[in-house]
Structures are given as C-alpha cells and as structure tokens.
Amino acid sequence: MELKQYLRVLVGKWWIIALTLAVTVTSAVVFSEVRAPTYRSSAVLQVIPARFDYGLTLAAEQLLRQFANQIHTTSMAQQVIDELQLDVSTDKLLARVTVAPIPEDFLIQIDADAPNPEEAAVVASAFAQHFVAYHAAQILDIDRADRVTILILEDARYGWVHWPKTKTLAVAGGVLGLLVGLLLAFGLEYLQSDVLRSSDDVERFVGVPVLGSIPTMSSGESKRGSNARSRSLALPWPR
Do 44 and 157 belong to one domain? Predict the structure, then answer.
C-alpha cells in the first residue's frame, strides 16, 4: 500500500480507532478504581566493611547476595510475624516481601507490600531490624579489622500506592487501544480489498485508464424517469 492509501484508510476508519481507544482506556481506569490498592514501603540497609582494601571490599560485594537471601527466609519471616502478631503464614508474608542487593552502593533494599500503608512500613522495618540484630550477633567472634557491619541507612516510611497505578494503566490501555484499532482498521480494509469503490480502484485492478463512468440514479429519479417514458409513450402519433 502507498502512503496515500494508508492515509485514506486512517481517515475513512478513524471512528474504529477512536472507539477502540476509548474502550481500552476506560476499561483500564475502571479496573484501577475498583481494585483494592496495594501499598509498598522500603527499608535500606548499608553494608560497611571494616576497611576499604580490595580484598575485604570484594568479599563484601559477594556477600550482599548472601545477606539478601538470609533476610528472605522462613525463620526471619516467623520472627516478624511473632513480633507484629500478624495473621498470615510465613510463605504468604515472604511473597509480599522483596529483598534486592545493590552491589555498586553496598546497599540492600527491603520492599514490603501490604493492604494498608502502616502495615507495609512496619513489616519492612521489622525485617530490617531483625536482620541487623541477627548479623551483629553473628560477627561478635570475628576480628574487628575483618568485620562487615550492617546498619539501617533508611528506615521504612509510610507506604505509597504500588498497584494499581491509574496513570500507568491508562497509558498502557491507550497504547493497546491504538494498536488494536489500527489492526482492526487495516484488517477491515484488507477484507474489502476486492471491492471497487472508485475510478482509482478500477484503474489499479484493470490496469487501464478509466475514460468515463455512468452516473448512478436514486430511486426517486428512476421513478420520475420511468413515468416520463410512460407519458411519452402515451402521446398520440402526429398525423
């Protein structure tokens, strides 16, 4: 198809694209409004080597992932449940908690999701505090010059809405609606590709220029033409 044909399809079937776009955006916004929100809060731990030589620094980087795995364990989750008196299993609690090491900054981020912002904050904070206490107890027998200390750099604050995000869903719905609308428009055009609707279509299909065309007549014009022929036939023959 040439550019002119693409533009003709877009202009002729703009209403399909607009309708599909409106439906998908509206559906995304309605979904966002009726779904119960999930709140997220984050706590950040800082990993501090006792000295910043190459060997200890490299070891601390390698330990970050191990520290993250130690935080995200059933035993740690059970301690948080016992402290906060949560009515949830350890598996479900761990499913709502994400622990991610940030090696380039020697940080560990703990994200906790919950149905309300207060619970998200206290859960993230509890995981951070319990692990800092656990790690401090583990390094007591290690020489101070070889220790890797972990501190709470940023405690968890009041949670924010993590999902659903209305603006994000609306934009995603708009992009999806635009793509679906374009597919529908060009799909219908493809199905109607054998229909000749203009002289350009005839020339393209036959391969020769159109020299003339017979104008169409409406039903009213057709009836008036037939009545006129009937009246002309009814006139007497001249003598």
Answer: yes
Shared-domain flag, residues 159 and 177: no
Q: Which residue range is the domain that position 56 belongs to?
A: 38-163
Do 150 and 62 share a structural domain?
Answer: yes
- Coil, strand or helix at 115: coil
Say whether both 106 and 84 belong to one domain. Answer: yes
Say if strands 38-49 and 160-163 run parallel, antiparallel, or are unpaired. antiparallel
**b/e per residue, 14-35, with b = 16+ CB within 10 A?**
eebbeebbeebbeebbeebeee
- Domains of the chain: total: 3
SS3 state of residue 213: coil
Q: Is residue 203 part of a domain?
A: yes
Print pLDDT tens along the chain (239 aa).
Answer: 567 777 877 888 888 889 998 999 888 888 877 778 899 999 999 998 877 666 666 766 778 999 999 999 999 999 999 999 999 999 999 999 999 999 888 999 999 999 999 999 999 999 999 999 999 999 988 888 878 899 999 999 988 887 778 788 789 988 998 899 889 888 887 776 655 556 666 656 565 665 566 666 555 555 555 554 444 444 444 44
Contacts (Cβ under 8 Å, ≥6 apart) of 142: none
